[in-house]
Amino acid sequence: MAEDAATATAAAAGAEAAGAHSSVQLQPRNRTLRFQVCNGFTNQRLSIMFAAMLAVRLDRTAVIPVLIDNGLQRTDNNIFASANNQIPFSDMYDQPYFIQAMAAAGLRVIAPEEAPPMTSYTEVSLVPYGWSATAPLAQQYGNELHVAVDCPFLKIMASELTAADWEFLWTVLDALRPNPQAAAVLDLAVARMAQRRPNSSREGAAGTEASSGSTEADAADGSSSFNFVHLRIENDWVAHCERWTSIRDGVVRDNCFNYTDEIGSRLALFGLPNSTTLYVGSYWDDVDESRRGKAFAQLEAAGYRVVTSADLFPTVLADAVGAGPGPGWNERTQTETQAHAREEAGGPDPRRARGGREYRAMLDYFLAMRAERFIGNSVSTFTALGLLERRRRGQWAAYYNGGNIPLVSLMPGLHRLPWVFTYNSWSPDYEYMLRGAVRSALATRSFTPYCIFQGNESSPIATWLRAQGVRLISHRPTWSEKLLEKARARVKDNVHRSHLFKTPDMLLATFQRVDLPVVPVLDQYTYVLYTDADVYFRKPIRLDDFGLPLPHSVSMSYELFEMFPYNAGVMVANLPVMRQNYAAFIDTMLANDNGLFYTNYGPADQGIINKFYEADLRSRMLSQVFNTKPYKPFDPNAFIVHFHGPKPHDLLSFITTGKCDFFSLCESAFLGGLCNYTEEYVQWIYDDLEVLRLRDACAWLGSSAVAQLFKKKWGLQEGQGTEGTPNAVSDATAAAEHLANRTGEVTQADAYKLEALSGKDRGNTAGSGAGTGTGAPSVSETATSVSPDQAAGAAVTSSDGGGGSQELQGQQQPLTIDAQRMSRMRRALMPLVARQEEAEAEGAARREAGVVTPDYAQHAREHQKAAGAGAEDNGGQRDGVHKDEEQVLMDFNNFKGIGADEEALEAAWQTLPASSAAR
Q: Domains along the chain?
């Protein structure tokens, strides 16, 4: 078969572009692949996309399909092609452009009239091949000259596709643009919307024309643009939702029709202004009148000015005929368009020819691509693909129905989860961890990164972030001054509870995350992943990996132990719900008269989040695989590793000095998963010397000479215990002795008094630490009490799995560390370990003697289970805890461990915050 001239020209001009998919050779091929499209406009696009990929895989020429209009021949929701409902590809899409674009991308495509007759094809059903049809087709039909297959959508597993493959698939979608006539219709429709100014949404629905002065009025107030809502209220959609939610396969499907009856107020939650014309897309021939009236009443009550296809297209299609002939614009097409216009105006069957459902869907879809803002129902593939295409192009896109986007589970490469973190320009000593977080996140190709940034946006770190594709959001909360005023009143008391109170910059920086729901750039998202900057990502993450149903408001996982309150260093946030609660949340936050310490919940933003959302947090805890700590045993299923507590430079310092501001967490890290994680981490922190040294230190742990090296360093002799070790712990000794003299019960509050006594920041950089999401554990992490053996051996609990992580990364075996060597080493490094072990022995003796130490961890799990079931026992609880936790909470709330230089503190709080100075 000869290539047409256009294809040959494009192939020659696009020879270099073909490198986008190196496995493709630009040469005429006599083997062809003919395929059918799936039902529905969006599925047509997706099936063409996957057919192109299948043709590339099989090294065949693709034959352009005949599109099927499913406005006719509907039988049990299946559509059969016939002479009455087949639409030529060129009637909808720009066929010459598609052929040229595909040639440039490395795939030869031919029109149906150039293809062999249907009798030449071996017909193959892809159904038996499940999710992966490429290999069986190549093996069984590789020698067949011409192969015809049914719909190839979802017949190539996402795990088979590389980054280059996804770019090719996007190229296919981009090439599926409307033909010139359809584009002219769209241009005219957009212009007509600018001329309409209905007095109410009911008038807009009825097609009332605007007054002659409406265009000038629209231009004056800047509302000539339009927003688009894809409102699924058709009869077939109601039936689909009933079937969808009744599938019994263990998958939660809870969002098919959600918020549809509240559409007006729901759109307002996403910031869609009612001063802008709102185009409401639906297949109105199949909408019950009462359902339509209810939806329009909702929109009218919210003040929206509504336009529909019934308002625009009868006249637009008729007027478009006057555009005159063009490529592919023949007499038959013109006649059909004129007939369609008459039918729309009151003819017998508005679903014939160019008025069919799929042609209307095409017009709606490309109008949605032109809208200023687009919002729809994420269960619909029309909306889902629209969301993904617009977001890829940087256009605003949202969905009103909550929950997940089911299509993403099937094709994760089409969507990137929004990932948000905060940072500033005055914490250079923590930038190495930020670089590791960003590099590892980008390597997964599963995130769209955003940074809520404070400070100098021309600083090196801001420049670096932008170069990585991170979108910087400059945002200063409206409540900043009130917050600082509240904190300033009790700062001398609260600085002893958390180092976050040392400077106003640190406090403002950590509170930034409470404004996630009101940052304008993020208002298009239903769910975002927030993390501190001291994390790295081990695997790609899609929304469904967090488990279904998704959190009602916010979800976090525990800190050191499975107890409440939880750690805000990693959060999955439901922004519309948090936006709805925002005013009440801020009022509660600022109503605090304890200097922003929230009794029983902790200090600062983590405290108020735990307090305000306690019921939701307890009922839906985020799996620990998304907030895995290096001081816990190595977890090969972890998605996110969080350097919570000791940072890499703290751990390296522990190796070289024997000191740890986080007491036993440093030692636990080396006995736990740290060395495995460090081996992974260095690939993202390859430009930081300390992390490289930390990896070397981990390698040394496997050497039999390690103990001797440390004995020499500490001046120990053979057989000598800790008595010969120089006392290098200074102020930490008193706190450790207090801990050792207690019974077998050790509280986290006591453990962190070692960190508190030093309260150091790396390099003593003002404003660094947890204010940027990289700090030490705050006192909010101290509201638990556990026995020493629990503290040493508690394993990571994964509550609801990663969902599909097995296909993303292979299992990694943990490193093995000789326990005897580690024991000798830790005695050399930690003189206080012996005292702690004496306390453990004393506690064991007390238990044997009948003195029972409460198992608070077990009790917390039981309490969490009760709270998750909605139980509220006010007689047995106080502020969310049982009476037998009150002693722990007393230590927690009265914590006075962190040291502070009062003169430096006073000077810091009299100085204008760096964020304000930068502004």
A: 5-175 (3.40.50), 180-407 (no CATH), 413-626 (3.90.550.10), 641-786+804-853 (no CATH)
